[in-house]
Write a structure and sequence with these properties.
mainly alpha, about 65% helix
């Protein structure tokens, strides 16, 4: 089972969340994957919950691989730039002309990332690397050299490590984030990678920003999970969503007496089913948080009118669950 290409969009609302600094796979990403894979589960004629749960965990691990792969792209581009510099230097020495500037190839952030222990260990285990896409890497090098970002950097006085780091943050945003050719390359390698790139780009940018020169090669990358609770959250939420589907859809019917239930798109039902699973099974998550999260998913994955409809429906469902003793949360948490 693979995630439908239709589900490759990801909401931009989460890109500024500060907690992304602390781990790669967080609950926003987990919820997104569960929305995608629950929909895919029902579209798959041969339903198998065990396989679907394995697919969920594999999909999350692939997102983490993409994070490290995109960081390794920076390394590959820098290494190719070093090769280009050596060729220009040799030519200048042979012809007796001025030597090219070595400012870019000695960029301290890029050198630190190239020596990073965690990233080096990842690259060493990969059968596929950016060396297999040398034409693309060279194209990025040329785009860098032609960019105003590069030219401004090269002409400015050397002010320190922060400028070196900021250069690569700007280059990544300008040349990698919305790179259609890169998206096609990633899709050829893994359907997951194309699905996840938008959110993973935010992780890469935040990683660049938090690099500290004093930590050298031991600078830590974002961990896959902050804690095992997040992994268990993913398993439990997905399992409850599928196993209790009939019960949760019953809750929708009970709470929708004043609503036109037939107006719901199938994706709306999937989104609300997951939201109910979260409200019922995770007492420490405020109802307002759950409702806001899944209303955002409706904006991304369903019809233009779905978000408003789902917002009202989930509020009614939450109150019904609280009133009937099916949800052990204070009614105040719903406001």
């Amino acid at each position: 089972m693979r995630v439908n290409v239709f589900l490759s969009k990801f909401a931009k609302e989460y890109s500024g969340n500060i907690h992304y600094l602390f781990r790669m796979i967080n609950r926003d990403l987990i919820r997104t994957k569960i929305v995608q894979l629950t929909y895919a589960y029902y579209q798959n004629g041969n339903k198998n919950l065990d396989n679907a749960e394995k697919e969920l965990m594999f999909s999350l691990s692939k997102a983490y691989d993409l994070y490290k792969s995109l960081l390794s792209l920076v390394v590959s581009v820098h290494k190719e730039s070093q090769k280009r510099y050596e060729i220009e230097k040799t030519r200048a020495e042979r012809e007796g002309t001025a030597l090219p500037s070595d400012k870019f190839v000695n960029n301290r952030f890029a050198l630190q990332l190239s020596e990073n222990i965690q990233l080096g260990q990842f690259i060493s285990t990969q059968k596929y690397t950016w060396e297999d896409e040398l034409e693309f890497v060279r194209k990025i090098c040329m785009q860098i050299e032609q960019s105003a970002i590069y030219k401004d950097y090269m002409s400015a006085e050397d002010a320190g490590y922060e400028d070196d780091r900021e250069l690569w943050r700007k280059l990544y945003k300008a040349l990698i984030v919305d790179n259609d050719e890169l998206s096609l390359l990633l899709e050829e390698k893994s359907l997951y990678w194309n699905d996840d790139k938008e959110i993973v780009d935010t992780f890469v940018l935040k990683t660049i920003k938090k690099f500290d020169e004093s930590k050298g090669e031991e600078q830590e990358l974002l961990p896959e999970y902050k804690e095992l609770d997040d992994r268990e959250f993913a398993r439990k939420l997905f399992h409850a969503t599928i196993v209790n589907a009939e019960q949760y859809q019953g809750y929708m019917s009970e709470a929708s007496r004043n609503w036109d239930f037939s107006r719901l798109a199938y994706m709306d039902i999937v989104i609300m089913q997951i939201a109910i699973a979260e409200m019922v099974n995770f007492p420490n998550i405020p109802v307002s948080v759950t409702i806001n999260e899944y209303v955002n998913y409706a904006k991304t994955y369903s019809t233009p009118k779905s978000s408003g409809y789902i917002n009202g429906m989930l509020d009614a469902i939450a109150r019904h669950l609280a009133d009937t003793g099916k949800m052990f949360k204070s009614i105040n948490s719903i406001k």
